[in-house]
Amino acid sequence: MQQQLRADDFQIPPHCQAVSVSHHKVAKFSLATTETYRDKNGQPQSQTDWHSIVLWRGLAELAQNYLHKGSLIFLEGKLKYRHYDDEQGRRHYVTEIIGDHLLLLDRKAAE
Question: Using 50, 70 and 90 to split pLDDT, how confident is the model at 14?
Answer without folding.
Answer: very low
